[in-house]
């Protein structure tokens, strides 16, 4: 038997941000803590959201001290903010990091336990504040997933924390919030969403519902990512990519991610590379390594991507997917770790630790080819560049 979980509602479309008050009313909530970052405050978007909520009779408060790749330490001020406001809900407003922070605060705000107790393989379904997610990027899919990722400051481990308690009750998908994203962030988040969709489809835990969402997301992303990268004001591309990111998020939340994610979390933890970018750095090499483990599934991805046709045999189609991913990452200028500025010596030194952490995450076990620790070390060595 398999189960399928996703938010109770999605408010979708241009201007959907203005429906935040209605979303709270749907859930019977009135005192949300808006969890965001200083950049979102500087754009005026947080004031816009707060004003809309106040005008609709709600009593919001803002916590803007989230950080990229949130840590156990960075959560402490947020836990105090939840208590000080008497919050009955949290609104994650921003990219993946504010939303992941909001999810963690929803659980920690009512459970006096360390975050490390919630990491996989445990799955938390206990008490938590209701979560509304409002993404401002089109990549993480966190607005629709039953996971959060928090770095343990004591160990530099990026902890995957799963469970229905981390699943937003609702999400507001307003693509107009993504129009100002710069090309680099546009590319990284889009390839992140593509990674989610491909891994959801080839995962050993895939199911028919996640399959349909994953293939739809792959098709949309391949058609629109270069357009949004070249012209951030392309509203059709922005709208399509936001929906695809959410589709991919729902898909992988219900089928699990695989080797790319297992390997990308340690890169983020040790070198402070944004999650979407670390996925993009790894996707070509990991796909090349994995493709022979389920040729027909990768062939389906190739056809959805537009890299192969229905008449292309599976082996050729799967090979064409690898080529297409290589070409996409080149076209949107995904850097290697070396080009990003990561020191070669430190990278080599940490390869054994990163490989051990990747295996420990459990994600590689869902991969079509389950790698050994030595094979993961070799992939890390291969992707570094020079």
Automatic annotation (TrEMBL):
GO terms for molecular function: alcohol dehydrogenase (NAD+) activity; metal ion binding. It comes from the Bacteria. Gene3D superfamilies: 3.40.50.1970, Dehydroquinate synthase-like - alpha domain (1.20.1090.10). PROSITE patterns: ADH_IRON_1. Belongs to the iron-containing alcohol dehydrogenase family. This is Putative iron-containing alcohol dehydrogenase. The keyword NAD applies.
């Amino acid at each position: 038997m398999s189960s399928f979980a996703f938010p109770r509602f999605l408010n979708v479309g241009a201007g959907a941000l203005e429906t935040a008050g209605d979303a709270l009313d749907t859930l019977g909530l009135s005192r949300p803590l808006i969890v965001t970052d200083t950049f979102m405050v500087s754009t005026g978007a947080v004031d816009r959201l707060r004003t809309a909520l106040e005008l609709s009779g709600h009593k919001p408060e803002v916590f803007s001290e989230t950080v990229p790749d949130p840590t156990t330490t960075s959560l402490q001020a947020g836990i105090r903010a939840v208590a000080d406001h008497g919050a009955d809900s949290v609104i994650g407003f921003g990219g993946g990091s504010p939303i992941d922070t909001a999810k963690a605060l929803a659980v920690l705000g009512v459970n006096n336990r360390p975050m490390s107790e919630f990491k996989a393989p445990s799955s938390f379904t206990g008490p938590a504040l209701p979560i509304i997610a409002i993404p401002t990027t089109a990549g993480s899919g966190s607005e629709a997933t039953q996971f959060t990722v928090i770095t343990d400051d004591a160990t530099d481990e990026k902890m995957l924390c799963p469970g229905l308690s981390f699943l937003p009750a609702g999400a507001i998908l307003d693509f107009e919030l993504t129009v100002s994203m710069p090309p680099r962030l546009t590319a990284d988040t889009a390839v992140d969403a593509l990674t989610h969709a491909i891994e959801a489809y080839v995962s050993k835990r895939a199911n028919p519902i996640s399959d349909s969402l994953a293939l739809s997301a792959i098709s949309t992303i391949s058609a629109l990512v270069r357009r949004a990268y070249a012209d951030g004001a392309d509203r059709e591309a922005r709208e399509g990519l936001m929906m695809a990111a959410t589709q991919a998020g729902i898909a992988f939340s219900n089928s699990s991610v695989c080797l790319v994610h297992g390997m990308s979390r340690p890169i983020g933890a040790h070198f402070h590379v944004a999650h979407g970018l670390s996925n993009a750095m790894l996707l070509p090499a990991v796909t090349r390594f994995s493709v022979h483990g389920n040729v027909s599934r990768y062939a389906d991805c190739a056809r959805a991507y537009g890299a192969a046709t229905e008449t292309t045999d599976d082996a050729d189609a799967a090979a064409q997917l690898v080529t297409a991913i290589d070409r996409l990452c080149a076209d949107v200028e995904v850097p290697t770790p070396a080009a990003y500025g990561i020191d070669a010596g430190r990278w080599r030194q940490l390869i054994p630790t990163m490989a051990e952490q990747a295996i420990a995450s459990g994600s590689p076990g869902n991969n079509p080819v389950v790698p050994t620790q030595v094979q993961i070390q070799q992939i890390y060595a291969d992707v570094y560049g020079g």
